[in-house]
Amino acid sequence: MRKWLARLAVLGVALLVVSQGQVALAQDPAAGKKVVRVGATQAVDSMNPFLAVRLVSTSIHRWMYGFLTVPDSKTLKPSPDLAESWSSSEDGLTWTFKIRSAKWSDGQPITAEDAAWTFNKIMTDDAAKTANGPAAENFESVTANGQDLIIKLKNPQASILENPIPIMPKHVWEKVTNIADFSGDEYPAVTSGPYIAVEHKKDQYVKLQANPNYWRGAPKIDELQVVFYENPAASIIGLKNGEIDLIGRLNPPEFESLKGDPNIVQWNQQGRRAAYLQINHGATTTDDKEVGDGHPALKDQKVRQALHLAIDKDKLVAEVQNGLAKPAHGSIVPPMYTDFFWEATGDTKVSYDPAKANQILDEAGYKKGADGVRTMPDGDRKLEFRFSIHTDTPIEDKLAEYLTGFFKEIGVTLTTKKLDSSKFSEETGVTGLFDIAISGWSVNPDPEEVLATHLCSRRPTPSGEGGGTESFYCDETFEKLYQDQLKELDRPKRADLIKQMQERLYTDAPVIAIYYTNDLEGYRKDRIKSITSVPEQDGILYGASSFWPFYSLEAVESAAASEEGGSNTGLIAGVVGAVIVIGLGAFFLTRRRKSVADDRE
Length: 601
Description:
The chain has about 600 residues and is an alpha+beta fold. Helices cover about 25% and strands about 20% of the residues.
């Protein structure tokens, strides 16, 4: 992989020599604008916050919109945002949030009516539930009285101060007649956060400008651009050549290729995501009707447990993640969140044991044929599963190779199925046209949101709307634990309930956590003067659970771009198909839609 990247870089440099005049012109600082360009190896799925679930989209929306509260940059505990203060009734069922006096980017005042409209929209519109539906499921009513937002709950809710829903401007969004079909790409957007989206070229870039009306004060740079790359290798070339200034969410091979570059700071910290396998154990809609074509053997918990036993997670970490991850011997909350992290021990722990996996399948009646492949107990169908991954993501190809070998040892055939990001999301989250898929989630300081992706209500409706499921899971035990933790206000007791939820997922195995990836990033120190991670001590930059890194961002004085340097900023070397490098004079090369597998929020 390193040699391949090196060859690719040489080709990229060769192309840059051809167009070096254009690059120099694009970086002319004459206009004095401070512009920082962030690379992303996925494109936004939607600029509509009611629909967006990809990490790049939710990150951009954090930079654009305010929330009731935000994680404190040091402690990750809830701190004021659009709500400057709050109080609750003695029974914990009524919460009053005082909305601060501030302005939207168009000069209109921000009011409690904006927040009330946002929450009520999600409570009453199935399409608007897509991104954050469960966050409002416990709301009985939401009303506004002057600048007071009043939320009445059905039951006490421990996570009420960590609501993940961005507040939208009512005077703009109430005009949208069909949320499901609205892409949200009307510019300039009306925002309340540090930045205003002013331009978006589908699958190419989003351009944001500093919001002069931001209540904390405008950012220290004039413009922030998010540039979409078709694959990680192309983004690395862009960073090394100075066409972008920062890239996050790197896989180990790309991250290691930055070593030794004097202009680049490598950022390797504990991450906030778990990577896991999503198992189609019988996909259904919210009315319990079966959908999709999942293999019937995967409905059997014993088969899912055998697959889990067959996976050598230590080898995956060492050889797929190059040691830059932690094996997941628990569930879906990463170890950085120490209060809620759960790890299996004793008899509960599933350790690599292919002999035991074979024994379980033998005893369950899944016999091996002459070709070594097992069949269903009735002999009707072989245990041949599809593994859905994303197109043009080399590390997923490598993962597939290892899993194929692991499963072969227990008489199971695995065939890789590559999908573009849109098709992947549709098949694994709505139509159920898969057997096993790579998945994952970036977990917030309060893990309720990721737990909610496994609720019955997160399955798609019969018409295919709403949803946001990560597993098509619908389990009475899990549901009861979820409701119990929701109303448990004693933090240690709530943490115990959340750990029980994770144990339920671990033992029932609708998903199989494989590892917790490190946060791997890189930025150019000749372009970025300072940037503050979240949390501030050894935290995350791109993809953090807060706007803070890109609000605190300072560019070096020379990091200015001309007025034309936004969507016309020189050359990017992109990689398409069989390692073909394409150079164009425009900075934002048109790329096919792409999403890294585990880059959902």
